[in-house]
TrEMBL record:
GO molecular function: methyltransferase activity
Family, as annotated: Belongs to the methyltransferase superfamily. Arsenite methyltransferase family.
Record keywords, A-Z: Methyltransferase, S-adenosyl-L-methionine, Transferase
BP term (GO), one: methylation
UniProt KW Transferase keyword: yes
Record EC number: 2.1.1.137
PANTHER family: ARSENITE METHYLTRANSFERASE
InterPro entries in the cross-refs: Arsenite_MeTrfase-like (IPR026669), Methyltranfer_dom (IPR025714), SAM-dependent_MTases_sf (IPR029063)
Listed name of the protein: Arsenite methyltransferase
Amino acid sequence: MKSIENIQSMGIGLYFCYTRNMKTFEETQDFLRQFYTQVAKTTGGCCGKPAATSTKAEELGYSYEELQSVPEGAEMGLGCGNPLSSASLKEGETVLDLGSGGGFDCFLAARQVGESGKVIGVDMTPEMIARAQANALLGHYTNVEFRLGKIEHLPVDDATIDVIISNCVINLSAEKQKVFSEAFRVLKPGGRLAISDVVATGPLPEAMKQDPELLGCCIAGALTVPEIEEGLAAAGFEKIDVKIKPESRQFIQHWASKLKAEDYVVSATITAIKPIPKQSPVRS
């Protein structure tokens, strides 16, 4: 097998042709982890997702001011929306970002929760963590922390998080129910889930689901809206709401363009609440 550096220099198309030789899902995931290591060392962007510009960020729902407010290189063009638009963050809250990448959403969240609040970013790639930590130092963020870990096994204590955000990451997980259950575990009662992710507009053909290229491009792992609703409900969430963003087809058409990805997936905003346990009536 060619080295990751050689494959990266060839471009994303040839890079992924080698993943088709992977025999197990674990091997593919390891290979993709290596790829995101390389993305962390560059300006970002993959699978036709361009590296960040003010125009591209605005397409995802961010303002020019937001893009300019964070350290250069924090926004890497890897998202599919703006989870903060539905998070309704408040001063003093503790926020957890699943798959925090270069730290862009963490830094925006840090401004909203203020110095009395805290933001934790979790990512499985050491190089992404290192890049985010460097960005935090550059931007003098004292209320942001980055932890190495998997979103299926969060390095976070029970019931310590007010709000969970995530941007185009959960679709990559092979164990989404574990992700939903872990999110539920770490949220405080009454805590909120506010994520942006891709959803399938219908059942994906099995051949697509098994295609490593389409997994890496945030297509093969997309769930349908009913699957997301059922998975979150099974984890214990209530007030589940999945809002499709039809306009997202404009930028998704550049992902795996030969496939016409916009015919299969769209971006969505997904929100849910961890219910507060009902108190038993006090007997006199």
